[in-house]
Each structure stands twice: as structure tokens, then as C-alpha cells.
Design goal:
Elements lengths: L3 E3 L9 E3 L4 E6 L15 E7 L8 H10 L4 E2 L2 E6 L5 H20 L13 H21 L7
Antiparallel strand pairs: 1-2, 3-4, 4-6, 5-6
InterPro entries: Pep_chain_release_fac_I, Pep_chain_release_fac_I_sf
Family: Belongs to the prokaryotic/mitochondrial release factor family.
Keywords: Hydrolase
Length: 148
């Protein structure tokens, strides 16, 4: 098995390479349709990594990943299961892509806080004018008043 390469992104400016020894790959039979080979081919892939023992993470990355992925973890182990394709090779590639994406998003720093701002007077005026135009359009759809 090859090491998992995570592309650079927020929180990982130089990217990351997880050694193959720290990944665990298991195979199983996929459910669902698949033709004659469905009962004989182990095409489902489960790719796991233990975040607590991951050597390439800094302590800050580890804390952030454990906090952000808490709902997906079994203890400290993150597992990705893929059975989308009939081919084990394609499922392995997809599992690696998904795991890399999850880890990159998990270690990304939170976005900066939004500074509260107030709408400008011109924006308020435009909004009010648009509401007035819309009101007139709807008023013109009504039946004309009769009885004169």
C-alpha cells in the first residue's frame, strides 16, 4: 500500500504525507447488485487511521481533528467505507481521496469571525424602493374595483 498524500490547503500549507504503515485497509463483500462476481469479490474498502497515534500531525492538528471529527470517530480511529464501484481498485482510490479530504477539512482553522456591520442608508433606500415596486406589481394583479 502507498502512503496517503494530502494536498496543501488551509491549515496544511505544505500538504501532508501519511505513511502507509499508519493506515489500515480492510476489504469486504459489497452489498447490492453486481452481477456474477458480487458474491466472490471483496470490492468494499474500509480505510482507517488512528488520529491519536498519527506521527505526521502536530499536537494542534491532532486536537483540532479529534474535536472536528468527534461524531465520526470510533475512539480515536477514523474509518472511511467505500462500496460505490464494482472494482476494488476504484474503491481504494475513492477511499483514499475521501480520507484525505476529511483530514484536510478537519485540521483547517476556523474561519475568521464576522464583523457585524450595518446596512448603508443607500442600501436601505434601495431595499425599500424594491419592496414598493414589488407591492405595486402585486396590486396591479388584483381585480379592478367595480360598482361605479
Amino acid at each position: 500500500m502507498d502512503p496517503l498524500t494530502i494536498a496543501p490547503g488551509p491549515g496544511l500549507p505544505r500538504g501532508l504525507v501519511i505513511p502507509a504503515a499508519e493506515l489500515r485497509e480492510r476489504f469486504a463483500r459489497s452489498g447490492g447488485p453486481g452481477g456474477q462476481g458480487v458474491n466472490t469479490t471483496d470490492s468494499k474498502v474500509q480505510l482507517s487511521v488512528d488520529l491519536a497515534t498519527l506521527t505526521v500531525f502536530s499536537d494542534a492538528h491532532r486536537r483540532r481533528a479529534l474535536r472536528n471529527l468527534a461524531a465520526r470517530l470510533d475512539g480515536t480511529v477514523l474509518t472511511v467505507s467505500v462500496a460505490a464501484q464494482r472494482s476494488q481498485v476504484r474503491n481504494r482510490a475513492e477511499a483514499r481521496r475521501r480520507l484525505g479530504e476529511l483530514l484536510r477539512e478537519a485540521v483547517a482553522p476556523p474561519p475568521p469571525k464576522r464583523r457585524p456591520t450595518r446596512p448603508t442608508r443607500a442600501a436601505l433606500r434601495r431595499r425599500k424602493a424594491a419592496k414598493q415596486r414589488r407591492s405595486e406589481i402585486k396590486a396591479n394583479r388584483r381585480r379592478p374595483m367595480s360598482g361605479f
